[in-house]
C-alpha cells in the first residue's frame, strides 16, 4: 500500500472509520467524487465488526479502509479486516488543521478520515502484530515501571530532606541508590512521636516500591531482549543499540515495505530537517518536532553512545566542529545518518544486514 499515490486509481470507495472505546462510526465515500454514499455506527465488538463489513459489502467490492487509531481503539477492527484480507490504511496522526475550524462529530470525523486518505500522496498500512505488538506492550510496561520507580525515588529524597533529624541523620552523605536501600530497611521505635513514625513508615513503603519497580523493569527488559534476539539480533550488534532502543526502533518500523523510503523513516523519527529559508539564505533549517518522539529519543541515545565510545563518530564531530557547526546541529546530522542506516538495515534480511 505504501507505493500507491492515488487511491482513486484502484478502489471504488473508501470507508473512513472514527474509532472510540465502545462504538465505531464509518462513512462510505466515493473514491472519484468524494461524495458520501452512506454512514453507520456500530459497537466495537466482534458482532459490530461483522455488521460493518456486511454493510459495506452492499456498496462496492473494490474498497479501502481508512482507520484512525489502528493501534489503539481501532486495533480490534483492524485485526478483523486484515484477517479478511481487506486493504487498511493507517491514519494514526490525522491532519488536525483540517478539522480545527470545522464542526465536530463522529460521522464527520469518519468522512474526514476517508477524504484525507484520498488526498494523501503516500499511504501507509497498519503496524503488524506478533513480535512487534509484544514489544510494544513490553515497552509500555517497562516505561511505566521506570517512570513510577523514578517518581518513588524522588519522593524518598524529598522526604529525607524534610525528615526529623534522628531519621535524616541515617541518610547523611548518601546518594539516592543508597538512600533507597537504607529506607527499605528502616525499623520503627516505640519511643518515636507520630511525625517520626509516620515518616519512617512512608519512607520504607516508598523505598520498597521503588525497589520492586526496578526489578519489574529489569524483567521487562529481559523479555524485550529475548524477543529482539529471536527477531532481529543484528540490531543488537550495532554500537549504542540495546534491547530498549532496538525494541523502540522495531515498533516504529514494524515490517518491510510499510515505510516507503529512508526519507520517510527519518520524517517519522522527527530527524528530517525542515527548510527555513528566506530570501537569499538557503542553508537554514528548523528543528523537526514532529514524528514518533520515542523513536527520536532512541536515535538520540545511539548518538550519545557513539559520540562517547566510537572513534569514527568522534572524528566526525571534531571535523564538523571546525566547520562551525554547533553541538546540537552535529547531533541532528548524526541522527539523520543513523536513521538512514537503520532503515536500510531493517529493510534487508537479518542474514544480509
Q: How would you characterize the overall build of this protein?
A:
Residues 94-101 have low confidence and may be disordered. The protein has helices spanning 46-57, 75-83, 97-100, 106-119, 130-162, 165-168, 176-184, 194-231, 233-236, 243-253, 262-268, 293-309, 311-322, 327-347; strands at 13-19, 23-30, 36-43, 63-67, 88-90, 274-275, 285-286. The protein is 55% helix and 10% strand. Helix 7 packs across helix 8 and helix 12 packs across helix 14. A hairpin with a 3-residue loop joins strand 1 and strand 2. The radius of gyration is 26 Å and the shape is globular. It has a five-stranded mixed beta sheet. Strands 6-7 form a two-stranded antiparallel sheet. With 353 residues, the chain is of the alpha/beta class.
Rg value: 26 Å
**What gross morphology would you assign?**
globular
Strands, count? 7
| Overall mean confidence score, pLDDT | 87
Strand content: 5-15%
Helix content: 55-70%
User: Could you give the order of the helices and strands?
Assistant: EEEHEHEHHHHHHHHHEEHHH
In terms of structural class, how would the helical and strand content be classed? Answer: alpha/beta
Helices, by number, come to 14
Mind describing the biggest β-sheet? 5 strands, mixed
Which residues form runs of ≥5 with pLDDT under 50?
Answer: 94-101
Q: State the separation between the terminal residues, measured CA to CA.
A: 24 Å
Spatially, the strands of the biggest sheet line up as 3-2-1-4-5
Amino acid at each position: 500500500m505504501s507505493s500507491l499515490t492515488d487511491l482513486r486509481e484502484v478502489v471504488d470507495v473508501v470507508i473512513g472509520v472514527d474509532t472510540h472505546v465502545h462504538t465505531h462510526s464509518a462513512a462510505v465515500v466515493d473514491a472519484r467524487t468524494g461524495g458520501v454514499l452512506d454512514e453507520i455506527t456500530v459497537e466495537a465488538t466482534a458482532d459490530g465488526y461483522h455488521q460493518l463489513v456486511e454493510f459495506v459489502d452492499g456498496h462496492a467490492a473494490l474498497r479501502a479502509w481508512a482507520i484512525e487509531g489502528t493501534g489503539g481503539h481501532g486495533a480490534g477492527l483492524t485485526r478483523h479486516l486484515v484477517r479478511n484480507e481487506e486493504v487498511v490504511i493507517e491514519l494514526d496522526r490525522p491532519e488536525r488543521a483540517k478539522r480545527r475550524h470545522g464542526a465536530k462529530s463522529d460521522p464527520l470525523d469518519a468522512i474526514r478520515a476517508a477524504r484525507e486518505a484520498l488526498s494523501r500522496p503516500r499511504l501507509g498500512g497498519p503496524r503488524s502484530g506478533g513480535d512487534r505488538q509484544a514489544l510494544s506492550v513490553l515497552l509500555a510496561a517497562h516505561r511505566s515501571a521506570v517512570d513510577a520507580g523514578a517518581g518513588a525515588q524522588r519522593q524518598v529524597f524529598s522526604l529525607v530532606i524534610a525528615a526529623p533529624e534522628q531519621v535524616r541523620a541515617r541518610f547523611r552523605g548518601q546518594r539516592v541508590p543508597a538512600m533507597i536501600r537504607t529506607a527499605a530497611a528502616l525499623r520503627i521505635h516505640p519511643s518515636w512521636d507520630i511525625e517520626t513514625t509516620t515518616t519512617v513508615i512512608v519512607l520504607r513503603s516508598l523505598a520498597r516500591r521503588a525497589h520492586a519497580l526496578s526489578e519489574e523493569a529489569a524483567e521487562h527488559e529481559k523479555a524485550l531482549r529475548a524477543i529482539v534476539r529471536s527477531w532481529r539480533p543484528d540490531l543488537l550488534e550495532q554500537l549504542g543499540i540495546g534491547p530498549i532502543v532496538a525494541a523502540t526502533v522495531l515498533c516504529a518500523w514494524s515490517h518491510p515495505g510499510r515505510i516507503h523510503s529512508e526519507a520517510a523513516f527519518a520524517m517519522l523519527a522527527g530527524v528530517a530537517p525542515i527548510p527555513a529559508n528566506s530570501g537569499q539564505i538557503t542553508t537554514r533549517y528548523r528543528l523537526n518536532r514532529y514524528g514518533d518522539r520515542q523513536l527520536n529519543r532512541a536515535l538520540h541515545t545511539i548518538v550519545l553512545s557513539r559520540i562517547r565510545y566510537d572513534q569514527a563518530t568522534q572524528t566526525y564531530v571534531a571535523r564538523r566542529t571546525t566547520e562551525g557547526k554547533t553541538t546540537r546541529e552535529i547531533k541532528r546530522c548524526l541522527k539523520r545518518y543513523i536513521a538512514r542506516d537503520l532503515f536500510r538495515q531493517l529493510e534487508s534480511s537479518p542474514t544480509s544486514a
